[in-house]
Structure formats: C-alpha cells, structure tokens
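Reviewer comment 2.1 asked that we show a complete input and output for one of the modelled complexes. We chose the flavin-adenine dinucleotide case, as it is the one discussed in the main text.
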Amino acid sequence: MLKDLFMGLSQNQFLNSAAKKYGLKLGAQSVVAGTNIEEAIQSIKELNAHGISCTVDNLGEFVFKNEEAIAAKEQILKVIEAIHDNQVDAHISLKPTQLGLDIDYNFCVDNVREIVDRASQYNMFINIDMEDFKHLQPTFDLLDELSLEYDNVGTVIQAYFHNALEYLEKYQNFRIRLVKGAYKEPEEIAYQDKKEIDANYIKLIEWHLLNGKFTSIATHDHRIISHVKEFVKKHNIPHDKFEFQMLYGFRKEFQLKLASEGFNFCTYVPFGNDWYGYFMRRLAERPQNLNLVAKQVFNK
Ligand code: FAD
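Response of the prediction step:
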C-alpha cells in the first residue's frame, strides 16, 4: 500500500516541479548531497577520504523540453570538469530521459554522446541508469550505438524482470550494475514477490561474477552482500572484478565497514534541485525511510 502511494507520488509532475523551488525538504537532505556541484564535490571528497569511490547523479526527470535536456547535459559536462579539476575518485550516472529520451531518440543520443565523449578524454566511466520498462529497449539501443565508438559506457540490469538473465548475457562484456529494480512494473514482465526478486538477483550476480566483466553489486541488503562475500571467496574471484554500491546517506556505517574490509566500494551521490522523484522512490522501497521524514519534521 505505502509502496504504491509513494510510487504514485514519485510520478506526480506537479509536485515534482513544485519541489524544485523549495530546496531540499522532508529529510531529503540526508540522502541528497546538496543542490549544487560544489556541495556534491565536497561530499565526494569526504567519501574518497574513506577509500570510497563515487558515481554522481545530477538529479532530474520529467524532461519534455529541448532546453531542459540541453541544460541537464551542460550541467553534467560541468560535473565531469569538476571531477577532473578536483582530481576526485568519481564517475557519472545519468538517466536518458533527463537527456531527452522522451523528446526524440536521436536528440538524446547526441546529448549522451557529447557527455561520453568528454568523459572519455579523462578516462571517466559513464553509467547509463535504467529507468522503467518503457525506456528499457531505447536505453539498450543507446548503449549499443555509443559502444560502437566508446568503451567507457555501461548500464544497469534490473533483477525483477523475467528476462533479466537474457539481458545480462547480451551485455556481459560491459561494466554492469546489478540492482533489484526500483519501478513498479506489471506482473506479466516482472517478479512482484520479494523472494523471487532476491533469488533472481543472486542468480544474476553469480552469473556475471563468473562470466562477465566488472560487476557493480548495488544493494543495501546485508543478506545478499554476505552471500556475495562467501561466493567470491569460494570461487577465488579477485576483489578487482567487482564492487559494492549503495546510495548516499543509506547504511553509512555499513558502507564504511565494507570499504575498510578491503572491498571496492562506490557510493551513488545524487545532487540537485530535482530531488523529489528520487526521494519518493526511496520511500517506496523502504517505508522505514519515513524515519528520515519524521526526524526532519519533529526535530524543529
Ligand atoms: P531491499 O530489498 O530494499 O532491502 C533488503 C533488506 O536490506 C531490507 O529488508 C533490510 O533488512 C535491509 N535494508 C535495506 N535498506 C536498508 C537501510 N537503509 N537500513 C537498514 N537496512 C536496510 N534501480 C533501478 O531501477 N535503476 C537503477 O539504475 C538503479 N540504480 C541504483 C544504484 C545504486 C547504487 C543502488 C544502491 C540502487 C539502485 N537502484 C536502481 C535501486 C534498486 O533497484 C533498489 O530499488 C534499491 O536498491 C532497494 O533494494 P535493495 O537491494 O537495496 O534492498
């Protein structure tokens, strides 16, 4: 019930644009690393000091105007320059819809190409985040097209899809982030039951660790992480073949612990004014995250 409520709220365009005007509210500041590049770089420096690498997301969704997509592209180019200038350990995560996928596919390809090209000059990786099913095939098409010219791109496979292993087999030679999946998808195409999603997630992780290129295992689930630790030990999989990823502000102690144990660790660092949809999806995933909101509302 709560999950559906927050998913619905995350897709509300009016609230989405209204929230942009008011800065980080409702506790979003504990899971969003500021509203500008300087604040994001400061957060990255703090994480880097603990041996944690970062992937930076300039938040933004519901982009239906060319000028908004171009502004997002310009901002991401500035982030790339800031990462380079500050010599911090970070790369970029981006969402194709923010760069015009809902406006025109070729326009989006051109925008993303410019970003990938700039990043390639600094040997920087660009992760193309995966959004909902409607955008899945165009996102794969985008990856196919860009990978003809560049090798610094990869994407995300969502374990809730029945066809996830098929997607992973096709993209096994890419740097892949494996996740459970954050959007509401119909039962015809996606598992709904947590046990089934978890089982498929473990299957994908094991498959890619044994067969694929670099694997980013993006989860806050300690049971899955313990399983991975045992699996890599049993199969002698070197630490440089994979990393764990978590979102900024979640399970901070656990993030530090994994990094201090010698595992590659990467924190997903979202920043910007367009925080609302991202924050609502986090509440949908884990209603306990409402604590963030409650603390903010009552600690005044
Ligand atoms: P869950 O299934 O939410 O939680 C499992 C268990 O872990 C819980 O029952 C609880 O015991 C424990 N737990 C979880 N969170 C906490 C917490 N904060 N504190 C204490 N215990 C906790 N999704 C996409 O669809 N596309 C993407 O491109 C994408 N990129 C992502 C990048 C990163 C770095 C991460 C971490 C997630 C990304 N996601 C993405 C979201 C992902 O698909 C899941 O929706 C999200 O991570 C929640 O699932 P989970 O694996 O963390 O564990």
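Strands lie at 53-58, 90-94, 126-128, 153-158, 176-179, 215-218, 242-247, 265-271. We note this here for comparison with the apo prediction described in Section 3.2.
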